[in-house]
Structure formats: C-alpha cells, structure tokens
C-alpha cells in the first residue's frame, strides 16, 4: 500500500476543490485511506494520519474513528507522536466518552517523564479536558509538580491545578501548602499563573479568602516593583512592564479587599499610584486603568479615590477609541447604584453616546440613561430618550418603551406631561410596546381624572391618523368608550377642543371592528367601547344594530360579547346604565411589574384584573368593588340581586349566567328564604313554605332596628337566627317611603367586613310605594363564624321624582344579640 | 475564562478552532458559522466587543475580535476576563505567530495548522491565560520543534541503517 500522503499534500489537494461536493468527495476518499492505514497498525504513519484527521475535523467532517489512534500515539515513545496524540485528544475526546479514561495511565507516566516538554504536554491535556475521575487520580502528581523548581512546569502545573479545583472542589485543600512560596517567584509566567490559582481559590472558598488576605502586602509590593522598575525589555509591552500581570494582581486585590477595611486600607496608596502614573496613550495602559477603576469601586476605598475613579471613567467616555467608551459605559452601569451623584456629572456625555453609530455602545448608553433618570432631570432626559426611541433599531424599541414608561411613572412632573409622554411613545413605537403595559396605561388614565377630556381627545386624533399600532388602538378605544361623552361635548381645558359628532366617533370605532389591521383583542375592545357609549350617546339604535350584527360573528369572543350585550338591551335594559357606568379610580398594590394592577383591598376577584375585557360582569363587580373599597378589607361579592321581581327564581338563574363568574351565593337559588314579609306577596317564594318565622324573632329576642332613615326612605332591619346554624343571622330589611312620590328602580346593596359572609336574596320588588303604602323587603343572611361585631355598609339607588339618587350609609348600630 | 478561540477568514472558512468547553461537532460548526455571521456584519470603526450569540451560551459571554487583513481572530470570553486585556492578548498572539512564521499570512495558517495549535497551547491552557511573554513562548516552541526534528533525523538514520 503506498505511503499515506503528507498533511501538506492533503491540504493542497483540498484547496483545489472548487465546490463543496468536490471537497467532500476528496475528504471521503482520504478518510477511507486513513481507515485502512489504521487497520494496518502501522506506527510510522500514524502520526501523519491523525494530523490529517484533525485537519478534516476542523473543516467539519466527522473524525471520531481516530480517537483510539490518538491514544496509541500518546502511548508512543516519540515526542512527535505524543505531540499530535495529545492535540488530537484535546480536540476529539471529551469526558463524555469512556475512551478518555484510558489516557489516565499514560498521562500519569508522562507527568513523571524525564523530558520537561512531555511533562508539559501531559499537564496541558489534563488541564484542558481532564474529567473529575482523572483529576482525582492525578491531583497528587500535579501537586508535586507545583513545587518543582522548573518554572516552565510550575506555571503549567498551577493552571492545571485550577482545572482540578474546578472539577473536584474538595481537592482545594490539597494545594494549599504548595501555594506558600508561589508569590516569591521571579519568573513572571509563574507569578501570573499563581495569581490565577490564588484567585480561583479565593473565589471558591471564603475560608481561603480569609487565609490569603495576609498576602496583600506582598501583592502590593510586586505591583509597586512593576510600576517603578523602569524599562525592562523582557516584560515590556508598549512601554509598560508586564501589563497582563498588573491586571491580574489588581483583580486579585479586588477580591481580597472587598468588604475588608484593613486590606482596602493597605491598597489605597498603590491604587492611587497606578491610577495617576499609568500612560493612557495605548490600549495596555487603558486596560490597567480600567482594572484599577473596577478595583477602587469594589473595595472600601476612601471617597477621594472613588471620585478619581469616576473621573477616569468620564475621561474614557470622551476617548475616541470605541472600545474604551464601551468599557467605560459598562463599568459606569455597575457603579451607578452606589455612586449615583458622581455618575450624574457625566450625564451629558452618556446621553451623547445614544447617538453613536455603534450598536453595542447605544445599548449600554440606553441602559445607563435609564438608570440616571431622576426627578430633577426627567424632562430633559425624556426628550433625549424619546428622540432615541424614534430613531433606534427595532431591537431596542421594546426595551426603550418599557423603560420610558417606568421612568415616567416614577418621576412624572405633572399628569399632563405623563399623558403626553405616553401618547408620544404609543404613536412612535406603538407596535413595540409590551402587551402588559396596556392595562397599566388604562389605569393611569383612569386615575388622572382631570385629564380625561384631554386624553380622549388626543387619543381620538391619533386614531384618526393611524390604526395599525395595536396597543395604541386598544387604549384609545377603551378611552373613547369610557369618556366618549366628554369627547362630543367639546369641553377641553388643556387644548383646543375638537368638534366631533357621535356618528363620527361611532364610525371610527366601527372602522376598527372591520379593519384587517385589528387583532381579535382589539376588536373586543372596540365592541365593548361601542356598547359603553350606548349609555353616553343618544344614538342607541345604531349601537343596537352594530351589537346585534356581531352576535353572529365567527370569532367566539366577539360573538359572546355581542350576545350578552344584546341581552342587556333586551331584557335587562334597566340595568344597563348601572352596569356601564364610569369606572371608579383603581388602586394599585405596588408599582412594580406591569402585570400587577387593580387589587382593591383584598378583593382578588379575577374579573377585576381583566379590566381590558370588561364584560358587564366587571362593571357590576366594580360597583361592588367601589362599595367594598370604602369599607376597606371586605371580600365577597354578590351583593347585586336585582332580578326583576315579576319573574320567579329562574330569572335569577339567568341573571347568574349573564353575570358569568360572579359567585354564586347570591341566591335566587331557590333556597328557602325564611323571610316572609307580612305586607307583600312573596313572589320568589313559590313552592316554599311560608311559615312565618316571625315567631322566631320574638323567640330569639333580638330587637329590630332602623338602619337608615333619610329623605323619606326608611330601612328597618329585623333579625332572626337560622335554626340549623346559629352563626347565621337572617336579617330582613323593610324599606318604606314616606314621601309623596314613588321610589322606582330601587336597588339595595350591602357589604360586610372580611370575616363575615353575606348572602343577599332577591327583593320583593323594586318600587317603594309612596306614603308608606307598602314596603320592599329583602332578606340578608350573614354568616359570622368568628362572632365579631357586625358592621355593614349599604348603598341605595333609586329614582325619585325623575331624578336618580344614590346614597351610601354605614350601619353600626346592630344590637349585640345579632352577632353574639 | 476563555470559552473558545476561533480564527476564520473573510469568507467564514475556519482556519483554527479551539474550544475549551465541550460541544458536539455539529454545534461547533454552527457556532463558527454564527460567529462569522455576527462578526462580519460589523463596521470597521465600531468597538471590538459583541454580545455573544445564542449558541455559545448565555448572557455572560462576549465575543472579542480583531480583524487582521483577511483573518478574524475571535475570542469568546466570560466576565472574569478583562476585555481590554484580551484585546492585548490577541495582539500578542498575532505577533508571536508573526515571529514564528516570518511575516505570517493566511497560507501559513492553512498549511501549518498543527503548529499554530502548539503555539496557542503555550499561551492559553484550559481556557486560562498561561504565558503572555512573547519571547518566552517562542523560545519554548522552538525547543520543542527542535526535539521533533532531531527525532525525525534519528528515525531516518535508523531506517537507513
């Protein structure tokens, strides 16, 4: 068989290939030749073949069949063979294959070889890819070599030890005695690797860290020698003596000095010296300065030194070299938390970096700018940042937009400014804004009550221009739904009011519904907005038509909404205005995370959170929430039981369906309501025994009380205990009207503190006849497991003499027997 | 720690690839391609630091590169290495190659890829910087090459005998 070709030949041949396929063919041919040559077990040419294999591996072709051959080469006596063998082992083998364990013995022998280069090869390979088993076996040998006087081997042994420690941290103690004399070496290579070893040990173990603190004076001395020694041709790099070693030592000093006053004290002088004496014209000087600055910032240095450090960073920022600027921005970002004021001084330079062409620098500058924003510079900074947002690459826009929102929220000087800023972000980077900022914005707008007219006007104008940016469209349609009446009324203090008719507004909203640019979520928003306008606008018919069209929409969400709204028009028209009322002010628990909104005092009803999809449920819940807000710390919802009294219990069932996930205890569930008002026929109590439980009242002995008496409306509470459960108090309210006009659309709502549970049954009617001709009765069941004092807040809504009246009252005068 | 050292030319052909952490072969090739893609897009006058690609892993890793004539020298490092220091290291590496090969050019790297590996092994070991003194490195490399040569001569003598 002809001698296998040399590596050089192979490379030359491969380079003549003109296409990938040709190259692949050549490689395959050569691989076959190599394979047969391996099978012949020919020692002379193995080295050559493996070298070729490694070359092919680099180009990306599979070469694992050469792994065993590498091992054979390592076992050979020739240096040439060993060299290629170890290289092959490092490139082809790794600890996941069992084959590598076969190397252990060879490496062990080679670590004790007479030739230092063979020992070096073995150390190198062990340090690169030694597995934990190998490291465990061979750690002793490495440790021995760490103490040798041969500097070439010593430095390699030090790095090998680092690898061993990384793989098997328990062996760290083993190397401790050998480190004693490491720093007294003259050879810079050994010094360098020793410092690396010490650094690794200190980073891994706080005990070691404490132990090595005593080395600080020695390190300081070495550093001093390096700086002061003058020109030394051996270690000179661009005029500075061994900058790599200086940087390493500075890094170790940083670790040793952190959180330790004594060590930091010892380092102060040398750090100041390095900072002032180092030449900055070349990159090496800057590398040292940079490391010095990082060290100064990390240890407990005195303030003068810190100011010096930040000034150096400031100088870096003005440097022409982009690398230096990048590095400076990175370190300023790290220090801005601790030395905020010092960094503020360089704010204008940082802001200029936003305009740099380099993407990496722009990103750093943006992060740093957000960190520097505070109450004083908010206006100026925001101008710059908004300008940046306009012109930056898309990859930045989402982060920038979120950053702007956060900063605006924290430091907005005025509500109008805040809303203007939001508008600007939405219109320029609207499609990059994160989805969860939409609810945040809605909440913000709701809470800035005086700005409603202005906001809705601006949003409307923005919608006229552009409906492609979904977050903008969603916020705008929500606002128009809420504040559409302000829009058409033409009142706006902040700017020139625009003249808009109801039809125009509805046109815009309907346009959103049909546009291809709108996502399903956006369509949901617009449909709900249109519905809300039915109580604010007069063109109800048009709205009815729109809503009924969507009752047969393919989109299930839209369809459901339309059907429910339709039902609202048809069967529950009297509830419509109450349900679609203005949103109350929402509270926030914490201003972190855009997902954390509206949690009103323990009210964890999920429907409250989803204010962006407000089916009527939310509206009604929010009204209850309103009530509960004021009481503070109440839970429990279903306080609204306004089933039309002409219908039997099943109507209440439908109401339940309509109100979706409103919990249940509101029962027009046909539970036997034990109250029987004497003067009114009990509509809801079909099929229920009408045993007058009034006897029980007397028996229980709880006196009735007047809960409310105002404007001619009087509400009395009578009590009894439900027999099976003594913790439940059953209260019957009797509402009577002493004025001359009827009170219609009467709705009674109640809320209790958290420890109670409330169940409100359906009222007997919603008309309180005038002149005490009749009463409206309703049963409340209160569960009081903790026997706490009963308190209740009630809300009354009714229409009297063509005006709608609402009132809130607190009932505190419950007789003690009702809750004991 | 240095995670990988890559040298490739202006068309993305790898001239040296050394990984100090284990990856599968195809992942290695993917990394080379991705790195080339990122680095070749860069303008001439931007900074030499790039946030690393997804494959080579995570937010802690940066690509530090230098462009010499037709070759890109890329070091992929984590935050424990000084960025400016690595730039200097690349410079030392290239100067060493220059001394070893007499005015090194791409062809030298192509035909003597094993020698480049040996030089690199004297500078970086296990992902950590071993020696930065150019003369020291060259001395050691020369001595080892001499050993190889003497072995070859010996082998030739024996085969004739």
Automatic annotation (TrEMBL), chain A:
Location in or out of the cell: Cytoplasmic vesicle membrane; Endomembrane system; Golgi apparatus
* Disordered: annotated segments: 594-621
Lineage of the organism: Eukaryota, Metazoa, Chordata, Craniata, Vertebrata
**BP terms from Gene Ontology:** intracellular protein transport; vesicle-mediated transport
The record's section on InterPro entries has: Adaptor_Complx_Large_Subunit, AP1_complex_gsu, ARM-like, ARM-type_fold, Clathrin/coatomer_adapt-like_N, Clathrin_a/b/g-adaptin_app_Ig, Clathrin_app_Ig-like_sf, GAE_dom
Q: Which family does it belong to?
A: Belongs to the adaptor complexes large subunit family.
Q: Where is the composition biased (Polar residues)?
A: 594-604
Q: Which UniProt keywords apply?
A: Cytoplasmic vesicle, Golgi apparatus, Membrane, Protein transport, Transport
Q: Does the keyword Transport apply?
A: yes
Q: Would you name any one GO CC term? A: AP-1 adaptor complex
Q: Please report the organism this UniProt entry assigns to the protein.
A: Nothobranchius furzeri
For this entry, the protein name equals AP-1 complex subunit gamma
Q: Which gene encodes it?
A: AP1G1
Per its UniProt record, what PANTHER family does this chain match?
ADAPTIN, ALPHA/GAMMA/EPSILON (PTHR22780)
UniProt entry tagged with the keyword Protein transport: yes
TrEMBL record, chain B:
Record's GO cellular component terms: AP-3 adaptor complex; cytoplasmic vesicle membrane; Golgi apparatus
Domain AP complex mu/sigma subunit: from-to ranges: 1-147
Where does the secretion signal sit in this chain? none
Ranges that cross the membrane: none
Keyword presence, NADP: no
Q: Cellular location of this protein?
A: Cytoplasmic vesicle membrane; Golgi apparatus
**PANTHER family given for it?**
ADAPTOR COMPLEXES SMALL SUBUNIT FAMILY
Q: Which Pfam families match?
A: Clat_adaptor_s
Family assignment? Answer: Belongs to the adaptor complexes small subunit family.
**The protein's name in its UniProt record:** AP complex subunit sigma
Q: Which domain of life is it from?
A: Eukaryota
> What is the purpose of this protein?
Part of the AP-3 complex, an adaptor-related complex which is not clathrin-associated. The complex is associated with the Golgi region as well as more peripheral structures. It facilitates the budding of vesicles from the Golgi membrane and may be directly involved in trafficking to lysosomes. In concert with the BLOC-1 complex, AP-3 is required to target cargos into vesicles assembled at cell bodies for delivery into neurites and nerve terminals.
Membrane topology note: Peripheral membrane protein
| Keywords assigned | Cytoplasmic vesicle, Golgi apparatus, Membrane, Protein transport, Transport
Q: Among its keywords, does the record have Protein transport?
A: yes
Question: What taxonomic lineage is listed for the species of origin?
Answer: Eukaryota, Metazoa, Chordata, Craniata, Vertebrata
What organism does the record attribute this protein to?
Answer: Nothobranchius furzeri (Turquoise killifish)
One Gene Ontology biological process: intracellular protein transport
